[in-house]
Amino acid sequence: MAGAPIEALREGMQIRYDELMSDQEMRSKAKLSVITFGGGAQQTALVPLRSFVLPTIQAFGARTLGAALHLLAQSLAEDVVLNTRERHGDYAPLVFIMLGGAVEDEWRSAAKRLGEFRYNAKPLMVGLACGPKADMEALAAVCTTAHSIAETSGAELRSYYQFISGSAPASNKAH
């Protein structure tokens, strides 16, 4: 993913951030982190929404979805405060995955680990396959819901961001 698609991804991240910041409850409760997975997986610090700084996303290297999912599972295990009788924990995490090509590492074991999370530690995962070479099989297996767009133009990605902004899908289908 490069050019207009990566710019649209950056724009979409800004749109989602601005929407969260416009909601008083989200401003006080939400935390954000970004995991990139080009040539390995890297995660920004999980911080309160008010402290979050949008990272500069660049497209490079192999699509290492498995590495990103392992990092996500580690973060969920360490960072999510579970609900108990004694305290109210975090809301269930919402994860967006965008993939523009074939996955180039082993992802199934990490997907299995994510599927083993329970209660509020189990994330709602939304996937987007961008273009004809994106690995829809992996996204459909990993995500709660997965969508596909054939064109990765900025306009198509902006349209997708507008779609997900209007609803948080809860089905287990691939579209």
What are the salient characteristics of this protein?
175 residues; alpha/beta; Rossmann fold; three-stranded parallel β-sheet; two-stranded antiparallel ribbon; globular
The termini sit apart by 21 Å
Any guess at the CATH architecture?
Answer: 3-Layer(aba) Sandwich
Helical percentage:
25-40%
CATH level-four homologous superfamily name? von Willebrand factor, type A domain
Please, what is the average pLDDT? 84
Query: Secondary-structure element order, as H and E?
Result: HHEEEEHEHEHEH
Give me the number of helical elements: 6
Approximate shape: globular
Oligomerization = single chain
What is Rg?
Answer: 16 Å
According to CATH, what is the class? Alpha Beta
- Give the total of beta strands: 7
CATH topology assignment:
Rossmann fold
Structural class: alpha/beta
State the domain count: 1
Strand content range? 5-15%
Strand order of the largest sheet: 5-6-7
Low-pLDDT residue spans: 167-175
Biggest sheet features: 3 strands, parallel
Sequence-ordered SSE layout with sheet pairings:
Elements: H1 4-21, H2 24-29, E1 31-32, E2 35-36, E3 42-43, E4 47-48, H3 65-79, E5 94-99, H4 108-115, E6 124-130, H5 136-142, E7 145-149, H6 154-166
Parallel strand pairs: 5-6, 6-7
Antiparallel strand pairs: 1-4, 2-3
Helix pairs in contact: 1-6, 3-4
